[in-house]
Automatic annotation (TrEMBL), chain A:
Statement: the UniProt record of this protein carries the keyword tRNA-binding: no
InterPro entries, alphabetized: MetI-like (IPR000515), MetI-like_sf (IPR035906)
Parts forming coiled coils: none
Identification of the protein by name: Carbohydrate ABC transporter permease
Topology in the lipid bilayer: Multi-pass membrane protein
PROSITE patterns given in the database record: ABC_TM1
Lineage summary: Bacteria, Bacillati, Bacillota, Clostridia, Eubacteriales
UniProtKB/TrEMBL annotation, chain C:
Listed PROSITE patterns: ABC_TRANSPORTER_1, ABC_TRANSPORTER_2
Identification of the protein by name: ABC transporter ATP-binding protein
A Pfam family of this chain: ABC_tran
GO MF term set: ATP binding
Keyword set includes Transport: yes
Species classification: Bacteria, Bacillati, Bacillota, Clostridia, Eubacteriales
Domain ABC transporter: 4-235
Organism encoding this protein: Fusibacter ferrireducens
Keywords: ATP-binding, Cell membrane, Membrane, Nucleotide-binding, Translocase, Transport
Entry-linked InterPro entries: AAA+_ATPase, ABC_transporter-like_ATP-bd, ABC_transporter-like_CS, ABC_transpr_MalK-like, ABC_transpr_MalK/UgpC-like, Mo/tungstate-bd_C_term_dom, NA-bd_OB-fold, P-loop_NTPase
């Protein structure tokens, strides 16, 4: 016993260290490369620390592509999607939670089944649709297909269902209108769920690369992930120092939020997985 | 489908109609109609989105799969010719094999690894919470960024991974250039990104198992392995199967890593990627749609299988 | 030989959170011992330490004369029934019952035989293939019992096993448990917060409060001869009436150590007029009836007196008293307690003295 405990301790810390290294090193490598010069990135064996960081990489990355435009587009698309989802999800979730109507099961089943359809499957017909409408290269093409979320409706419906029926009946007796019930009673109770859903949508939209790639043909409405990807085309060969500098800018807001609200974000995703 | 569309449209009209009802004389009847129509009005916005951007595209894709069309000329109905071509195309079988490799590799390794990590990090200590945070971080980071980071680390000549292999006196690997290895390199990236998520889900499932079950098992003289396989694992089986389902669908739709790291070369072309290529690079809309239908059938089968067999069998509540 | 012995047991969860304080307890072979007390008194903790689910901070536990130090729960020759049954939800009833047997490497033939036997006793044969969730509360309770019994342990530990059942079922299973104990003649250790359960089932009651034994003994002894106010008030419903002796101070004859006087609600005789029976000795109180509850076989009165509110119980169902009444408690029914709330056994008052208010 006396001997096994320190060995166990050392083993445990060794495993901890390995886990940490495996999951942290790629991020470190990104940060490190983002401040290396082109020459340093071409060295082998690679250097593990940079004594004179080349912060001009960020400036160069900024100048190589319309960075501000991309960032602005990312923000517009992320918040646009969030707002649209709020508008479509809240009433639908309320209806599925609180009303009985004839085709409820059909519509709800249809809604849930859309959860299984990835956007990578149906981008082609949607692209054709938007081309016909002349909406390629507009924010609409990036926002509208995600303007509702079956997952969001499902989650919020669960939350609404937990609100005791008596509370609503009491409100009805007080002559509240249905809309008033939704906004004054149900939504305040569902605030954490709404916030969680908003967070998940933001992360998903911010990170989305596939959709803007297929729905845009020029830079006017392209988002940051596409911008980063386009950095590799600058000059010949892949300029990893520039790509990594762009990467840092793309990842930073997310990691920054994660650093401060880590438990909350993890809980949000766990919540998603458990239902 | 068209009929449903009409119903939801009608409901909107009805809701609109209801607003004017207050000035009408036959208030009671209109009020009643309003009440019946109101819930349809509430679900109408979301149903519109789903119908236009989910249901319609699927139907349209099925329709397109029977057409020959390059977006310039007119559509020509060619029956099942696209499917005929697809099923004799050796490339298609290569794509199927690659897709299965990618999916099975990602899901199986991720689940086992995540179970081990979850067992290891289960106790609620400060260091475990920290490590949970670290392994989860990749999950919320854009796959584009991760693809670039790993592409850089897997560089055959200048990459970090080969440097480490060098240090350990192991033979270096041409990660993304060797057709035998490339798909597994992509699997590795996918595991690295997703395993933290699986782990967190498993930990939360472990912690929802009531502690008295473990006490009862102790009194029943169950050893650690028996307790894990007879109690813990069955208790988390709903989570396990849910994770497997989402993992399979998640694996089927992976695009970014392939697009950025290999462009589908070196035997890394999956169904989704070849759908993208045929649709966007070669403009063979009909053929691409046929691939899409195949993918849809696979997803549908997996989902159906999940909800009709597995979930019933593991459901114990 | 005692079946279970607890010697100098301490249990503290944190430094300042002492749950059990120097507990010494001997449980006789074949007894139906009840650990009873208010919540937080340490009764469950004690049971869990006997089971080995919780580690004692200090002291030693012996089962069948063997020290249980570092002995795993599975090796203690005990079985436990949990408050919420703790049935494995993923296993069928049969697998639940069989799990412990398999772990103990009992051959298949004997396993089947034992399961058959237990199922016949408890009448659960028809549910064997079902999962616990599809059973009612009472059925689950029986499965939990079966799982414990099938191991043929030398001690049964039960942690409030009836608390999740409705009143009718609780009474029924209570009777069944008593019969079961008679049949098996095994040691039962049973934890409850319900004094009725304690009195009705136990052959030996251990009353705990704040990690200490307040009194132990057979049910009748505990009821008739409480050694302190805590016991007097915890056992019996409504609790014993306790009055401050000093309020009667103008009367001499009280032992000076006496701080409290107590009597059980059923021991007061109620009457309309003062001193119905002047020849009878005892304590006489005047009071005003506040409320009464007719319970069928008895009537409960809440009576306001000069010395505080008291509860009274009469079995005379012919008449309900109202308004001002007089209450007489004969001397031999009075209990006296000192400042530390412990019983004073010597006669505190001369036999022939009548105490008047």
């Amino acid at each position: 016993m006396i001997f096994s405990n320190p060995i166990k301790m050392i083993l445990k810390w060794f495993i901890n260290l390995i886990i940490f290294v495996i999951f942290f090193i790629p991020f470190y490598w990104m940060l490190l490369t983002s401040v290396k010069s082109l020459g340093e990135t071409l060295q082998f064996p690679p250097t593990f620390f940079v004594w004179n960081p080349h912060f001009e990489n960020f400036k160069n990355a900024f100048e190589a592509i319309p960075f501000l435009q991309f960032t602005f587009n990312s923000i517009v698309v992320a918040f646009g999607t969030m707002i649209f989802q709020f508008i479509t999800i809240v009433p639908a979730a309320y209806a599925y939670a609180r009303y009985d109507f004839k085709l409820k099961n059909l519509f709800f089943g249809l809604t849930l089944s859309t959860m299984m359809i990835p956007s990578q499957l149906i981008f082609l017909p949607i692209f054709l649709l938007f081309s016909k409408w002349g909406m390629i290269n507009t924010y609409w093409a990036l926002i509208l297909p995600f303007a509702s979320s079956a997952f969001g409706i499902f989650m919020l419906r669960q939350t609404f269902k937990q609100v005791p029926e008596e509370l609503i009946e009491a409100a009805r007796l007080d002559k509240s209108s249905e809309l008033k019930i939704i906004f004054k009673i149900m939504l305040p109770i569902a605030k954490p769920t709404v916030f969680t859903l908003g967070l998940l949508t933001f992360i998903e939209t911010w990170n989305n690369y596939f959709w803007p790639l297929v729905m845009t043909t020029n830079d006017t409405v392209r988002t940051l992930p596409l911008g980063i990807a386009s950095l590799r085309m600058v000059e010949s060969g892949i300029n990893y120092h520039l790509v990594m500098a762009g990467n840092v800018i793309l990842i930073l807001p997310i990691l920054f939020a994660y650093f401060f609200a880590q438990r909350h974000i993890i809980d949000a995703f766990t919540y998603m997985g458990e239902k | 489908m068209i009929k449903k569309y009409a119903v939801s449209n009608h409901s909107q009209v009805g809701a609109h109609f209801d607003d004017k009802a207050s000035i009408s004389f036959n208030m009671d009847l209109l009020k009643h109609i309003g009440k019946v129509v109101f819930p349809y009005g509430l679900i109408a916005p979301s149903m519109m989105i789903f119908l236009i951007f989910m249901i319609y595209p699927i139907l349209y894709m099925i329709y397109l799969s029977f057409q020959k069309w390059n977006m310039l000329s007119d559509k020509v109905f060619i029956g099942v010719q696209n499917y005929d071509k697809l099923f004799v195309d050796p490339d298609f079988y290569q794509v199927m094999i690659t897709t299965v490799k990618f999916m099975v590799g990602t899901v199986s390794v991720s689940v086992v690894l995540a179970l081990l990590l979850a067992l290891y990090l289960n106790q609620n200590t400060a260091i475990n919470r920290f490590l949970q945070g670290v392994i989860f971080a990749p999950y919320i980071v854009s796959l584009v960024s991760i693809a670039f980071i790993f592409m850089w680390m897997m560089d055959s000549d200048l990459g970090l991974l080969n440097y480490i292999l060098n240090l350990l006196h192991l033979p270096t690997v041409r990660w993304l250039e060797d057709p035998k290895v490339a798909i597994y390199a992509l699997v590795l990236v996918n595991i690295w990104k997703g395993v933290g998520y699986y782990t967190i889900i498993f930990i939360s499932a472990f912690q929802s198992i009531p502690p008295y079950l473990y006490e009862a098992a102790k009194l029943d003289k169950s050893n650690r392995y028996r307790t894990f396989f007879k109690i813990t694992l069955p208790m988390i089986s709903p989570t396990l199967f849910f994770i497997t389902l989402t993992g399979i669908i998640g694996g089927l739709k992976v695009f970014e890593t392939i697009n950025i790291m290999t462009m589908g070369s070196n035997n890394t072309n999956t169904l989704v990627y070849s759908l993208y290529q045929y649709g966007f690079s070669f403009h063979k809309i009909g053929y691409a749609s046929a691939i899409g239908v195949v993918l849809m059938v696979i997803i549908g089968t997996v989902t159906f299988f999940y909800f009709n067999t597995l979930s019933k069998r593991v459901h114990y509540r | 030989m005692y079946k279970i012995e607890l010697v100098g047991i301490d249990k503290a969860y944190e430094k300042d959170l002492q749950v059990i304080d120097n507990l010494n307890l001997k449980i006789e072979e074949g007894s139906f011992t009840i650990l009873v007390g208010p919540s937080g008194c340490g009764k469950s903790t004690t049971l869990r330490m006997i089971a080995g689910l919780e580690q004692e901070s200090d002291g030693e536990i012996f089962i069948s004369g063997k020290s249980m130090h570092n002995i795993e729960p599975g090796d203690r020759d005990i079985a436990m029934v949990f408050q919420n049954y703790a049935l494995y939800p993923t296993m069928t009833v049969r697998d639940n019952i069989e799990f412990g047997l398999k772990n103990n490497k009992i051959p298949k033939v004997e396993r089947n035989q034992r399961i058959q036997e237990i199922c016949d006793i408890l009448g659960i044969s028809e549910y064997l293939a079902r999962k616990p969730q599809s059973l009612s509360g009472g059925q689950r309770q029986r499965v939990a019992l079966a799982r414990a019994m099938v191991k043929k342990p030398s001690v049964f530990l039960m942690d409030e096993p009836l608390s999740n059942l409705d009143a009718k079922l609780r009474n029924q299973i209570r009777t069944e448990l008593i019969e079961l104990h008679r049949k098996l003649k095994t040691t039962f250790v049973y934890v409850t917060h319900d004094q009725v359960e304690a009195l009705s089932m136990g052959t030996h009651i251990v009353l705990l409060n704040k990690g200490k034994i307040m009194q132990q003994g057979p049910p009748l002894e505990i009821y008739n001869d409480p050694q302190n106010i805590f016991t007097a008030q915890f056992i019996g419903s409504p609790p014993m009436n306790i009055l401050h002796a000093k309020d009667f101070s103008y009367l001499d004859g009280f032992d000076e150590r006496v701080e409290y006087v107590g009597f059980r609600p059923e021991h007061g005789q109620i009457s309309k007029i003062r001193s119905v029976n002047p020849s009878q000795e005892g304590l006489e109180l005047a009071g005003q009836i506040n409320t009464y509850e007719i319970l069928g076989s008895e009537i409960l009165y809440k009576i306001e007196t000069k010395y505080g509110s008291i509860n009274l119980k009469t079995f005379d169902m012919r008449e309900v008293y109202e308004g001002r009444v007089s209450i007489l408690i004969s001397n031999d029914k009075l209990c006296y307690f000192d400042r530390d709330e412990n019983r004073i056994y010597e006669k505190a008052v001369p036999r022939d003295q009548k105490i008047c208010s």
